[in-house]
Amino acid sequence: MGDKGKTLKRIVQSPQQETKKWNIALALLMTALSVAVMVLNNTLSIATTMLPFLATLFLVPIVVQLGYWYAIGVWLFVCAVSAWLVSDPIALGLYIAFGYYPVLRRCLAKLPTRYQRFSMKFCYFNVVFIGLFALLLFGFQVQEVAVLLIGATPVSIFILLLLYNITFFLFDFIVRQTEKLCTKTEKRLPKWAQKKRPMGKKERKQLRKAKKAQETAKKKDQ
Q1: Residue 37 CB: number of other CB atoms within 10 A?
Q2: Using CA of residue 73, residue 77, residue 79, residue 80, what is the dihedral sign?
Q3: Which has the least CB within 10 A, 1, 88, 92, 190?
């Protein structure tokens, strides 16, 4: 193959190879940061609630830049590693239950009205949160949950649930702001590092011309 054919081949293939490298590097970096934050629960027991939500924020760049399936894969991997390394069952349960929220939030954003989005988010949170603590208390008989609820009255349980709902509201706000930041940052990245979008007619024509030129160069070399 001549120099012209090699140059055309490099133009066609190089962006794809660079994109794959970028995707893998970003996914590995966010995975490592999520695992590191989850492992901190072993030493910072005071931040049992905050650290799982902080680890979840590292999923936002993956959702924005790489898409849903990369994010789901990272979440599953972090869940598996955390189950092995994290000794705090409450922190582990919170990450398993809410670690995929950036993906779910993107899906809920497609609902037509703000009221529907708001109500679905808090219905999801309360159902999953209550189910999680019931499972930890009655299913796995976690002592930390039992100690937390010793001497609790209906009023104190309601206040605790209200505080967690406020925490979730703040968490949702932070996720939204992080999405905006990641979207702005993506526009400043090189074109090969930006998320792939469906090609238009012009892009398809240019790709066909490049392939035809490459085939012509091959025939001439032969």
Answers
A1: 24
A2: positive
A3: 190
pTM: 0.75
Distance CA 4, CA 52 (A): 53
> How far is residue 92's CA from residue 42's CA, in Å, rounded to a whole number?
11
Q: What length is written for the chain?
A: 222
Residue 179 CA to residue 174 CA, distance in Å, equals 9
Please report the pLDDT score of residue 195 as a whole number.
57
122: helix, strand or coil: helix
User: Any alpha helices (H) in the chain, and if so which ranges?
Assistant: 3-39, 50-57, 60-65, 68-85, 89-98, 101-108, 114-134, 143-148, 154-188, 201-221
Ramachandran region of residue 198, left (φ > 0), alpha (ψ -120 to 50) or beta? Answer: beta
